Amino acid sequence: MSKDNLNLAIVGLGFGREFIPIYQQHPSTTLYAVCQRTRSHLDEVGAIYGVERRFASFDELIADPAIDAVHINSPIHLHSSQSVAALRAGKHVACTVPAATTIDECWSIVNAARESGKNYMMMETAIYTREFLFARELRDTGRLGRIQFMRGSHQQEMAGWPGYWEGLPPMHYATHAVSPCLAIVNGQAESVSCLGSGRIAQVLASKYGSPFAVETAHFKVREQDLAFEVTRSLFETSRQYIESFDLYGEKASFEWARIEGESPIVHVGEKPSRTAVPDYARLLPEPIRRFTQKGVYDAENAHLSFTQGGGHGGSHPHLVHEFVSSILEGRPSFPDVYQSLNWTCAGICAHESALRAGEVVTLPNFESKLAQK
Ligand SMILES: NC(=O)c1ccc[n+]([C@@H]2O[C@H](COP(=O)([O-])OP(=O)(O)OC[C@H]3O[C@@H](n4cnc5c(N)ncnc54)[C@H](O)[C@@H]3O)[C@@H](O)[C@H]2O)c1
CB neighbours of 227 closer than 8 A, spacing ≥ 6? Predict the structure, then answer.
């Protein structure tokens, strides 16, 4: 039986809270339930947004047959196990980045999605920013010509974030820099060579056995004559926050602004010009258009990621709309499960390469049935 309205549940109410009013106002969803561990915070958030079904247990949430889809925003180490459990319980799954932390976890999500027939979408903010949508328009209107090269960069200082971030290998959180490079060519990474550079304090390095301040990688795109480059830093490297991609075409190129507040640059031939990027709210159903400009918190209580990430470029309602539309239209989402896991695995394999002094690491091909674990 086809449905025209989905019951959604949000898991994790830090960053996840940003999405509550978007699902509440999307014309095809009901924000049916929220879930997080601490009962007091769960009740506080539930009361603010008028969400009556509240679960302090993830297992109880996914046992509720009324829920069609879950959007997971728990800490990183829970993403894969919760995604697999929700898929196996017959729910469509949206999960924040990164999808997983090991290659085995990547496989477990791919296999659970295949076996359940449900949609899995990694909610990658970087490919629904207004900058990315602008670059996509440049591509689709032929203004770039042949795409020749891509570069992604994500530099951040994560001192003071929750403990599980401390010492995280930079490439284990690489999707914001990897994804736009691959999404613009609708591609997947085939192999990577990555070097670690610099050193962080031993107290941080010992947490995940990762000593590097910066990781810098070259990736080969599968079945395309293209390569791209990604740079990541998380601790003890001075720079304003940047989460960016550059895109080099035969006729025109797009370069992200170097510091916040500047406009990106479009080069046509050798001639550069600063270019204001439009908002793409018009692509969305009217009730959720305003969320491209505004988060759900007031300025004082804004989620740190939203402030540091410049509001994630207005991406949140686009992500919600893509996830919901893909389910209702019975098609894979963008990114689908294979792209999501490839884009996550790219960073996992990059870190493996860095630990082996830049040795080339070939990514598993999650779409190959023969290679299925
Ligand atoms: N731009 C982006 O895409 C972006 C930005 C910020 C955060 N994130 C991702 O969002 C995730 C959450 O980030 P955060 O800053 O809100 O983290 P956080 O640690 O502040 O909050 C985590 C939330 O998950 C809940 N939780 C923890 N264990 C749970 C369990 N077993 N069952 C149910 N709920 C559980 C907690 O109660 C809390 O509400 C991270 O994985 C991060 O990678 C993505």
Answer: 149, 218, 219, 220, 221
